[in-house]
């Protein structure tokens, strides 16, 4: 029971859940904007990786976390515009374009990293003041010993970096933008019925480009968080499939912002537990193969897609380039 | 006006332009890291063909890419985008390894090969079946499910290798080495016949299986009733259903064939080269298949050329990385991405201009002939 508690319910595990789900959340929200506007994006992974590299390189070169963030977001926006050009202007296949971006980012980050820093594709180790560090919220020390409430405040809510709070603040903000503003209504409309939006005199192309740029900004922050907040520098292939887990979370949440947060927390929790289960036997079940726990987010998403727990219906015009006239 | 472009433009010039653009940008990247693109190209070509039996390695890589390229192409002909070739090949390796582990001590290689081929195809097809069924019956998007299945396959293989397939005494997560009866013969003699000096190149008999698959796929797609149904489904699903072609059955069978072809890829590295099942032996070949299929315009002949091209990149790329430390083998991944971008996502970029040009020329010619 002791072990069980230590692995599954510890504040430490839950804190790690928050940190591990942050990049997923940012990337999934990024995908939410893009896919709600009708541009499918399986290039989240590549944009995140490119941003992580740029952030690591920028922060190391200019000795500033903020410049790192700027570089990360800038590179992610460039990649997003590439995807936008291919899928909106050139009316190409959005899936193929996403695949291409993933490869280009995976290769370029290592090549450029090696040629600029000569550390086998890494960026130099960052010092504390070149990173976004965890900071304590007021009262974190005072309430440390109060059971539950104090533990949660100190271990879970406090002690995270700025980008974590940004990610979680984006959830209500995204909900508000999507469902309570004119921009959000139009964004959802171009994803469902672009012809109707066009008839109303709104440019489908402009709407989709805006969505793709927002997607770039958020994946940029996601990558930046990985490289200069969660870790102290870029490492080769550091996203390691997180972009695809974010995609899974987005589908799992059926393209809705608040549910996206819960899906990301769930997948982050599975990740945190998986790390702690390594080589630890659980009473009754015995040792759980960690590799199978790592596959759980994907399995859950497939089960959802199969329509056994609800039905995930993507935006209707998703993946279809808009042609004004034939 | 369906055939707007002459075939040689559609199948020759257009892919060539896309390829040149991809190489041009790769050249810029090489310049950016402070190396000479010309020198890189020299090492690339000489490394792929002459240095140290390079051709044997080039064709070895090409063998894998032919299988995965065919896999992606068959699915595309049916209007499906199978990103799961990587995972299907990985699981296909399980079929090969099980056959070899069971038979290598008691059977000669050609008997084992038949069983291993069947095993690879069956396991690959089996792994493609679930996404196919979900697409056909439950309407879930095949792209997403096959991506998920790649990751699930990777997890399952790690688990199986570490917990079950690894010999008890060994630390490395791989099966024991197959005996002679589980090893495909090398084709050194064939290359030497053509005057290439090769030493220990891994090119093996599965190369012929790949070529046979090319022929069979051509036969299937353009010379059978099912192939016609498959192409109809790919071009216009509504018309196909209206014509009485069963949608679910066509989709599932197309994906089974695609998965089987991907699974066969495992023969080449596992039975032909490593002689054991190890972690991550696919090494991205499934994804290269996407580039190969796009580049080869989904035609078996085009796929053979595109696969050899990528074989050159893989083998020559190693030589480039060896001689020019600033350019690691990750350059191949960049080129691969650029090829997918230009030949796939941006394929419509040049088409309108070319179409206009050739249409104008034809009109002018007709005018001259008529007037």
Explain this structure.
The complex is a heterodimer of chains A (326) and B (371). Chain A has 13 helices and four strands. Chain A is mainly alpha-helical and 326 residues long. Chain A has one domain (2-131, 147-305): ABC transporter involved in vitamin B12 uptake, BtuC (Orthogonal Bundle), CATH 1.10.3470. A two-stranded antiparallel ribbon of chain A has the order 1-2. The mean pLDDT of chain A is 87. Chain B has 371 residues and is an all-alpha fold. The radius of gyration of chain B is 22 Å and the shape is globular. Chain B has a domain at 62-191 and 205-312. Chain B has helices at residues 7-32, 37-49, 54-77, 85-103, 109-138, 142-165, 188-193, 206-223, 225-235, 237-242, 247-264, 267-274, 285-295, 300-323, 330-345, 351-370. The model of chain B has no long low-confidence stretch (mean pLDDT 88). Helices cover 74% and strands 0% of the residues of chain B. The chains are: A mainly alpha (326), B mainly alpha (371).
Which key terms come to mind for this protein?
heterodimer; A: 326 residues; mainly alpha; ABC transporter involved in vitamin B12 uptake, BtuC; two-stranded antiparallel sheet; two-stranded antiparallel ribbon; 13 helices; 4 strands; B: 371 residues
Distance between the termini of chain A: 67 Å
Number of helical segments of chain B? 16
Biggest beta-sheet profile of chain B: none
Helical coverage of chain A, percent range = 55-70%
Low-confidence stretches of chain B: none
Give the class of chain A from helix and strand content and strand pairing. mainly alpha
Please state the second-level CATH architecture of chain A: Orthogonal Bundle
Tally of distinct domains of chain A: 1
Number of strands of chain A: 4
Assigned CATH class of chain A: Mainly Alpha
Shape of chain A: globular
